[in-house]
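Students often ask what a holo structure prediction actually looks like on paper. The answer is less mysterious than it sounds. You provide the chain, you provide the ligand, and the output is a string of discrete structure tokens encoding the 3D arrangement of the protein together with DTB.
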Amino acid sequence: MTTSSTVSVETLRASATRPAVSAFAPPASRRWPDAEVEALYELPFMDLLFRAQTVHREHFDANEVQLSTLLSIKTGGCSEDCGYCSQSTHFEAGVQATKLMPLEEVVEAAQAAKAQGATRFCMGAAWRSPKERDMEKVIDMVREVRGLGLETCMTLGMLEAEQARALKEAGLDYYNHNLDSAPDFYGNIIGTRTYRDRLETLDQVRKAGINVCCGGIIGMGESRTQRAGLIAQLANLAPYPESVPINNLVAVKGTPLADTAPIDPFEFVRTIAVARITMPRAMVRLSAGRQQMDEALQALCFAAGANSIFYGDRLLTTGNPQADGDRRLFERLGLRVKVPSEIRP
Ligand code: SAM
Ligand code: DTB
Ligand code: SF4
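The corresponding structure tokens follow.
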């Protein structure tokens, strides 16, 4: 990946145009049988890409990509046993546990993300669920970050109805809570919370009026049928999520998935395309694992309908491509930064 660049954030943003359809519009849903989703995976690669591009262009400017920056506001020491995760106390991945980050440091990081060109700031905590004493602090973070003119997103684990309402009231735009995999594969990876628990949190988020950010991880050893099963679960949420992060497993040393063989890159691109076709108005985010992809593969993901990335040098505990390298890639592909209408000056 190229790391030096003369492309400024202003140049990237200057040509951003208003999208035909706001990403905030609640998307219409239809029921996708698992077999129909799997049939999409089975299409010849070029046919699948053509279909995904066609759907993408019906709803979005295909040359715009939205930028979200992640910050780990509380790292490690998590009681859950998610088999992919470096932050679980069940495994020895060498991640140092921290306390909740002070508000000023979060605001500083958000300001830096905005200066780099991000439009959404996603704050993640390694919790099973937030404790009451944490709520006040994360609510202050939402207020302050929203006040900077950034979209806000949080991922704090499972939420009760009251917590979701409090976050909404503070101005939280998105809540990220992933289904992670198909129901019949999930139990191979996670034992401390159920699929149903996850669906219940998503329900609370939806009922509180917060936009749902929900996706999963590809390449954990699941079958194609199970990948299709995950996408069908997401697409059949009514309505389907506004944001869909598709993570490529980052195989972290010390976790049970450390030795998992990388997935065929074309299978990953297929997953992006199938997500785009089944959730036409969602922001489909090319998420974890981008540092392990070359630029040509990332370009294929954009061609398959990905229109969002995590932008900034770090994800939560692992690396991400350098921001200036990403800007350079955008310039080479003629991509512009999508600025949501809600936060446009
Ligand atoms: N603790 C909260 C939770 O699990 O709900 C929030 C943070 S958690 C790290 C957010 C998501 O990051 C997970 O659901 C998973 O999809 C993704 N993730 C975590 N570790 C990953 C890895 N090594 N590779 C790919 N995705 C990962
Ligand atoms: C999501 O789906 N991916 C992000 C975000 N939501 C919170 C997290 C990716 C984490 C990758 C591994 C790490 O950095 O620890
Ligand atoms: Fe904890 Fe979230 Fe990691 Fe699971 S994914 S171990 S809940 S931080």
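Residues 1-7, 11-26 have pLDDT under 50 and may be disordered.
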